[in-house]
Amino acid sequence: MERFEILALEYHLAHGCNLSCQQCSHYSNFHVASKLPTIDEVDAEYSQWSHRLKPMRFALLGGEPLLNPAIIQHIQLPRQHWD
Q: Which residues pair with 61 in a beta bridge?
Protein backbone atom coordinates (compact mmCIF):
# COMPACT_ATOMS: atom_id res chain seq x y z
CA MET A 1 0.00 0.00 0.00
CA GLU A 2 1.28 3.47 -0.85
CA ARG A 3 2.16 5.69 2.08
CA PHE A 4 1.07 9.31 1.73
CA GLU A 5 3.71 11.84 2.70
CA ILE A 6 2.33 14.52 5.00
CA LEU A 7 4.03 17.56 6.51
CA ALA A 8 3.18 16.83 10.13
CA LEU A 9 1.53 14.28 12.36
CA GLU A 10 0.62 15.19 15.94
CA TYR A 11 -0.59 13.07 18.84
CA HIS A 12 -2.03 14.29 22.15
CA LEU A 13 -0.47 12.60 25.18
CA ALA A 14 -2.37 14.63 27.76
CA HIS A 15 -5.38 16.85 27.42
CA GLY A 16 -4.91 18.25 30.91
CA CYS A 17 -2.32 20.62 32.26
CA ASN A 18 -1.08 21.80 35.63
CA LEU A 19 -1.31 25.45 34.44
CA SER A 20 -4.32 27.61 33.61
CA CYS A 21 -3.11 29.91 30.85
CA GLN A 22 -6.01 32.03 29.56
CA GLN A 23 -4.72 31.93 25.98
CA CYS A 24 -4.26 28.14 25.87
CA SER A 25 -4.66 26.89 22.31
CA HIS A 26 -5.53 23.38 23.54
CA TYR A 27 -8.25 24.48 25.98
CA SER A 28 -6.37 22.89 28.86
CA ASN A 29 -7.33 25.84 31.03
CA PHE A 30 -10.87 24.39 31.22
CA HIS A 31 -9.52 21.37 33.18
CA VAL A 32 -11.68 18.82 31.38
CA ALA A 33 -11.14 15.42 32.96
CA SER A 34 -9.76 12.79 30.63
CA LYS A 35 -7.62 9.70 30.86
CA LEU A 36 -4.07 9.55 29.57
CA PRO A 37 -3.47 7.26 26.60
CA THR A 38 -1.57 4.09 27.43
CA ILE A 39 1.36 2.74 25.44
CA ASP A 40 -0.77 -0.19 24.22
CA GLU A 41 -3.56 2.11 23.01
CA VAL A 42 -1.15 4.42 21.21
CA ASP A 43 0.79 1.52 19.70
CA ALA A 44 -2.46 0.12 18.28
CA GLU A 45 -3.38 3.51 16.78
CA TYR A 46 0.08 4.02 15.28
CA SER A 47 -0.09 0.51 13.81
CA GLN A 48 -3.31 1.41 12.00
CA TRP A 49 -1.74 4.50 10.40
CA SER A 50 1.96 3.78 9.97
CA HIS A 51 1.48 1.84 6.74
CA ARG A 52 -0.72 4.64 5.32
CA LEU A 53 1.08 7.85 6.31
CA LYS A 54 4.66 9.07 6.11
CA PRO A 55 5.00 12.20 8.24
CA MET A 56 7.92 14.55 7.70
CA ARG A 57 7.56 15.79 11.29
CA PHE A 58 6.03 14.06 14.32
CA ALA A 59 5.02 15.93 17.49
CA LEU A 60 3.69 14.85 20.87
CA LEU A 61 1.25 17.41 22.22
CA GLY A 62 -0.85 18.23 25.23
CA GLY A 63 -2.00 20.19 27.57
CA GLU A 64 1.20 19.11 29.22
CA PRO A 65 2.60 15.89 27.68
CA LEU A 66 5.12 15.50 30.49
CA LEU A 67 2.24 14.73 32.87
CA ASN A 68 1.95 11.33 31.19
CA PRO A 69 3.92 8.91 33.41
CA ALA A 70 4.96 6.83 30.38
CA ILE A 71 6.47 9.83 28.55
CA ILE A 72 9.79 8.08 27.78
CA GLN A 73 8.04 5.15 26.10
CA HIS A 74 5.78 7.58 24.22
CA ILE A 75 8.85 9.41 22.92
CA GLN A 76 10.42 6.16 21.73
CA LEU A 77 7.28 4.54 20.25
CA PRO A 78 6.88 6.60 17.04
CA ARG A 79 10.35 5.55 15.88
CA GLN A 80 9.14 1.94 15.83
CA HIS A 81 6.43 2.91 13.32
CA TRP A 82 8.06 5.68 11.25
CA ASP A 83 11.58 6.44 10.07
A: 12
Q: Which amino acid is at 26?
A: H
Report the Cα 33 to chain-centroid distance in Å.
Answer: 17
Alpha helices (runs of H) in 1-83, residue ranges in sequence order: 39-49, 71-81
| Residues found in the chain | 83
CB 26 within 8 A of CB 64: no
Q: Is residue 83 very low, low, confident or very high in pLDDT (cuts 50, 70, 90)?
A: confident
Are the C-beta atoms of 55 and 8 separated by less than 8 Å? Answer: yes
pLDDT tens for 16-46 read: 776 767 776 666 666 666 788 999 999 999 9
For CA atoms 14, 16, 20, 21, give the dihedral sign: positive
